[in-house]
Specification:
The structure is a single chain. Strand 22 and strand 23 form a beta hairpin. The protein is flat and about 65 Å long. The strands form five sheets. The chain has an eleven-stranded antiparallel beta sheet with strand order 2-1-5-6-7-4-3-22-23-19-14, with no helix packed on it. The longest helix is centred in the last third of the chain and has 16 residues. It contains five helices and 23 strands. With 344 residues, the chain is mainly beta. The chain folds into four domains: 90 residues, Phage tail proteins - horseshoe like beta roll fold (Roll); 77 residues, 3-Layer(bab) Sandwich (Phage tail protein beta-alpha-beta fold), CATH 3.55.50.10; 64 residues, no CATH class; 78 residues, no CATH class.
Length: 344
């Protein structure tokens, strides 16, 4: 089956159709993941003639493995290296802009999601799905740190994942359970499986805020009490028979502690604690699989892996494994065709 693709590099358009013109595509490597500094693409071209992509040009990549075309990357040209026979274009997506943008701002009575969205837009990027999360009476974004660092800190408080989607929008989203969008079987779709059970090294989170918010209201920012019990939250994740369960307002034996002065109510503390352990509960297995081209795979989707070899199955012989996609990487070349790596 012929793999379809459309790659826009500024005014240059590449396609698998020979009559479309443009330089030949020699290799493509494009990936996005949760966390980090955003998605990247490496596009290796044949002789491009006199028309060469320029740094800052728009980049849009679509792939088609027979089920319709899907956008897999949107960004901009970061670097162009032109040789005698080939030209290599490196591209990045909008999340990288946050890593370059320094910001200093103060907020009052806004949600964590509002602050993330404001940081994204201040860096010149477009916000996608942004979790609202708890409201902070006061929150300061200090200069010296990049917008990405501040957004990552807020995402960690939210128990959310920060990433760019295929359209280049920056998202900050808490994981949720869902039905599998893809069903992949060993020997039919899967070429390689590298999975391992993730032990619960931390089984709970104790969250401590600051001030007298638990007894005198969140507006008492001038009043710091030695009794923090009124601004505290906790939640636990436990495991039994391979299933993980979240229990609010409980602590396990391997608890982690979070202290943050921006948290000024018991409701916010409880919400943060529960979101943190839910993220642990929904990631019982880590690793990756290599599959035949899967352009429709998207970050945050769930995938079911079936008929895995016993030696590669982290949950038990013959059992299907359902995992949430945290990383997608597509590689296209004449020698391998299109293959997709999914990371969990």
């Amino acid at each position: 089956m012929r793999i379809g693709y459309t790659i826009e590099l500024g005014s240059i358009t590449l396609s698998e159709q020979p009559d479309e013109g443009g330089p030949p595509l020699l290799a493509l490597d494009v990936g996005r993941s949760m966390g980090g500094t955003g998605g990247r693409a490496r596009i290796e071209l044949g002789n491009v003639g006199t028309e060469v992509p320029a740094v800052g040009d728009n980049v849009r990549i679509e792939l088609d493995a027979g089920e319709g075309s899907s956008v897999v990357f949107t960004g901009e040209v970061e670097e162009v290296a032109r040789g005698t026979r080939t030209t290599v274009v490196q591209a990045r997506d909008a999340l990288a802009w946050l890593a370059e943008h320094e910001v200093e701002r103060g907020y009052e009575e806004v949600s964590a999601g509002f602050i993330v969205k404001d940081l994204v837009e201040a860096a010149g990027a477009e916000a996608g799905t942004i979790e609202e999360g708890p409201t902070f009476p006061r929150y300061a974004v200090h200069g010296g740190g990049r917008a990405l660092q501040h957004a990552q800190r807020l995402a960690a408080l939210l128990g959310a994942d920060l990433y760019s989607d295929a359209e280049g929008k920056v998202c900050c989203e808490r994981p949720t359970e869902g039905s599998p969008a893809h069903h992949l079987r060993w020997g039919e779709h899967l070429l390689q499986v590298l999975l391992e059970r993730e032990p619960l090294r931390t089984d709970s989170l104790a969250v401590w805020g600051e001030g007298a918010a638990g007894t005198d209201g969140s507006d008492k920012e001038h009043w710091l009490t030695t009794d923090l019990s009124g601004v505290a939250g906790k939640a636990e994740v436990s495991e039994s028979n391979g299933r993980r369960t979240v229990t609010p307002k409980q602590l396990g034996k391997r608890s982690r502690t979070l202290i943050d002065g921006a948290i000024r109510s018991v409701d916010a503390a409880d919400e943060i604690a529960e979101a943190y352990v839910k993220r642990l509960a929904l990631r019982p297995v880590r690793g990756s699989v290599l599959a035949l081209g899967l352009p429709k795979a998207a970050l945050g989707q769930w995938v079911e892996l079936a008929e895995l070899p016993d030696s590669s199955n982290p949950v038990g012989r013959g059992a299907a494994v359902q995992l949430r996609i945290r990383g997608v990487r597509h590689r296209l070349s004449p020698s391998t065709g299109l293959v997709t790596e999914l990371r969990f």
